[in-house]
Amino acid sequence: MTVAVRSFAKINLGLYIGGARTDGLHDLRTVYQTIALHDVIRVSVGRGSGIEIVCTDARVPLDSSNTCYRMAERVMDELGAKGRVNVEIEKRLPVQGGLGAASSNAVATLVALERALKRKLSAPVRLRIAADVGSDLPLFLVGGTTLGVGRGEEVYPLPDLPPTTCVIALPDIPISTPKAFADWDEETKLTPSTHSDRMLEFSREISAWLNAAQIGRRSGVSAGGGGRAENPLLDLVRTGIENDFEKVVFPKYPELLEVKRVLEKAGAK
């Protein structure tokens, strides 16, 4: 039996990057938001052994470097299951497009494999395996509007934003996340105390936004002021939340900055 699962994309409504950790990764504060764009993952388990990745997109690795491969390996080991796992990835999302496609694919593989085997891992085990495979995988087990801390793998659900029209502009410019982090380290050279101050600043902004949103829901007044409750996403924007990657990516790829300017000029929030 083949099980198909949609693999949704994410955007970061804001991202603050802290100092490099001893493991070489970075402390983060971010607000994730899953969106309707998606790939499709199809999983089947047959006789034999091993894991096969199938995808017609030449940019997708088909070996053990693929997150779906690593996820399938971990799930089979955790469940003590036997068989040959086939994972077919129907790509609709861009590769290295910042939408978390590879991570989402891996989580969809986990869900599909559980259904194919008719066995389910506990929620803590699912989150542990997801975090081991990659930093932003756990968010796809939560979905919706989610706060990410640590290296992004520690996730907490936030009140869902209302359905919102979202335009995704996808210039044909793949951006390597590890390279973007390296550029950030080179450009900022922040002291540990400065990193700590920025993380605390972000935490305060999110806390204030959540508190104001709660008050707004009770009173009918927008957290950002005004007569009636507005879209809380706009109130989040008013906190000044930013994406730190823009500071190092835009100078190297000015066409991306131009895309942002065009969207803002057209009225995007």
Describe the structure.
With 269 residues, the protein is α+β, with helices and mostly antiparallel strands. It folds into 2 domains: 2-157, Ribosomal Protein S5, domain 2, CATH 3.30.230; 177-265, no CATH class. Helices cover 41% and strands 22% of the residues. Strands 1, 2, 3, 4, 5 and 6 form a 6-stranded mixed sheet that branches. Strand 3, helix 1 and strand 4 (84-90) form a beta-alpha-beta unit. Helix 1 runs parallel beside helix 2 and helix 8 crosses helix 9 (254-265).
Radius of gyration: 20 Å
N→C terminal distance: 44 Å
Would you count the extended β strands for me? 6
How many helices in DSSP terms?
9
In total, the number of domains comes to 2
Overall spatial form: globular
The percent of residues in helical segments reads: 40-55%
User: What is the makeup of the main sheet?
Assistant: 6 strands, mixed
What is the highest CATH level, the class of the largest domain? Answer: Alpha Beta
Strand residue content: 15-25%
Element-by-element helix/strand order = EEEHEHHHEEHHHHH
Task: Provide the residue-averaged pLDDT.
Answer: 85
Quickly give the CATH architecture of the largest domain: 2-Layer Sandwich
- Structural class of the helices, strands and pairings? alpha+beta
The low-pLDDT segments are: 218-229
In CATH, the topology of the largest domain is named: Ribosomal Protein S5, domain 2
Summarize the structure.
With 269 residues, this protein is an alpha+beta fold.
Layout of secondary structure:
Blueprint: E1 2-20, E2 26-46, E3 51-54, H1 67-79, E4 84-90, H2 101-117, H3 123-133, H4 139-142, E5 145-149, E6 154-157, H5 177-188, H6 192-219, H7 232-238, H8 246-252, H9 254-265
